Amino acid sequence: MNISSVAIGQYMPGESLMHRLDPRSKIALSLVVVIALFIVKSAWAYAALGALIIGAVLASRVPIKMVIRGLRPLLFVMVLTFGLHLFMDPGEPIFRIGKIVATDRGLAQGLITVARLSLLIMATSIVTLTTSPIAFTDGLESLLKPLSFVGVPAHELAMMMTIALRFIPTLLEETDKIMKAQMARGADFESGNIAKRARAMIPILVPLFVSAFRRADELAMAMEARCYRGGQGRTRLRQLRMGALDVAALTLVTAYAVLVVVVL
Amino acid sequence: MSDATSDAVIEVRDVCYTYMRGTPLARQALTDVNVRINRGELVAIIGRTGSGKSTLIQHFNGLLKPDSGHVLVGGRDIWRKGVALRDIRRQVGLVFQYPEHQLFEETVVADIAFAPRNMGMSQANVDEAVREAMRVVDLDYDALCDRSPFELSGGQKRRVAIAGVLAMRPEVLVLDEPTAGMDPRGREEVLGEIRQLHEAHGYTIVLVSHSMEDVARFAERLVVMDGGTVAMEGSAREVFRRREELVNMGLGVPQVTALMAELAARGLPSTEDVITVDEALRALLPALLGASGRANEGEREGEVGA
Fold this sequence. Notes:
- The complex is a heterodimer of chains A (264) and B (306).
- Chain A is mainly α and 264 residues long.
- Chain A has a domain at 9-131 and 241-264.
- Chain A has helices at 17-20, 23-39, 43-60, 64-69, 75-88, 104-130, 133-144, 154-184, 194-200, 202-225, 244-263; strands at 93-97, 100-103.
- Chain A has a two-stranded antiparallel ribbon with strand order 1-2.
- In chain A, β1 and β2 form a beta hairpin.
- In chain A, α2 packs antiparallel against α6, α3 (43-60) packs parallel to α6 and α3 (43-60) runs antiparallel to α11.
- The longest helix of chain A has 31 residues, at 154-184.
- Chain A is flat, with a radius of gyration of 24 Å.
- Chain B is an alpha/beta fold and 306 residues long.
- Chain B has two domains: 5-240, 3-Layer(aba) Sandwich (Rossmann fold), CATH 3.40.50.300; 264-305, no CATH class.
- Chain B has 13 helices and ten strands.
- Chain B has helices at residues 53-60, 85-91, 108-118, 123-136, 141-144, 154-166, 184-199, 212-218, 236-240, 243-248, 255-265, 277-296, 301-305; strands at residues 8-19, 27-38, 42-46, 68-73, 76-77, 92-95, 172-176, 204-208, 221-226, 229-234.
- In chain B, the strands form two sheets. In chain B, strands 6-7-8-3-9-10 form a six-stranded mixed beta sheet, sandwiched between helices.
- The chains are: A mainly alpha (264), B alpha/beta (306).
- The interface between A and B is medium-sized, with 20 and 25 residues.
């Protein structure tokens, strides 16, 4: 087990068109595309939205490999739903394996479902691939701000997300260190049944919790020492700014999506 | 230093290691490192932060696997098939930096017993090993055994953690900055216990340290790491003679060595090669007595002696 090889987040730094878009535009647009993907039914509509998403991927200059990698966790679900549609849907038989019959409508429906899932993931991961975690939470906070009037703690949510993101690498490093220290004392995390392995986690989890609480304590103190009192009246070093690019992207992409939904 | 391989408890041969190998973040930490730790020695490893000290000692007990090269413990290649890493980790006890961060059990005794239990010792042997380890690091068994390690003082926690490694009865004890973050008194006590382990109990000890004063006083041999390679090796006296090179590596010499070099430059004779305060006293006493004797016979003698 080597924790240090785990990549944190997905962000691929760059200067492309997609990178330059305001995070708010990217979040809003991915939402528009995701909603469109849920509404449309025809294959043509999927093709049109697929073209849009692939266009965005190309414009981001992120290696296609990275985008494909994002699909991997859902590969099993995709294969399963495709199989279910293919063999369970009614329709004209295409071929049969023993008693199980594959149908033409099943094939079509299966393909569409797989396309929908893949496009959903691609539409969202292109945002996380081109937006740094900090910019992402800034954008989220800004988008949630109107909701603070109905009691949604927008700033606090964003701050919690920022802190969590900030501490993921730190805690991973800490875990690695504690694991090694316990291994040096003969701990074994890799053999035995599930119950034994779960018990073997205790020597890692207890010190990890202790250190997480210690860090939380120190961080709270440091924040108070710098007079943190929530989002009220707080100004920002990095202001989010919508540019001509954002206006153009928002109008064109939204218009395109609406057109696809209405016409196709 | 003997050349016979049997004398070496740990032998590192041509070891290279790269963190995050095969990713864009790959960073080579060790390049062709050769180090021997001989039986019964007290060796100190020094080097600036990021010079590869911690990476090197994690090769000693098989926590890291070298990309190339070999690590031998007791003459056996630890990465050869059929070698149980658990045995290696028992033979080479490794105490990490801030070891108190690894405490997790409900009682002090249970925590110290974690390692010997993992090594498959019988209950009687575990008890015996725990008592002995606590005695060696100066912890009162009866007073502390049922206390939670989390309610102890910082110095006591550190001792419990060191005892937790000692209880395995290792042949070599490797300590990564055992006095980091401790107050002067705690430092002296822990260093005293380490010296005791070496002198009275015959432990082979590898000490990673940032304190030139400490290594000058305790270490029989120094290994100086720089940029992932062994830059110098030898007795403290030999190493600290190369002051300029050390300074260029972001290290230095004991303050007293620097002071004596300065005095020598200003014409005080026979003050070279001093690495501890005691030696400085012995070197300076005749000169001071001589000088003051000429100026004011007798009167200053008592002051210098005190």
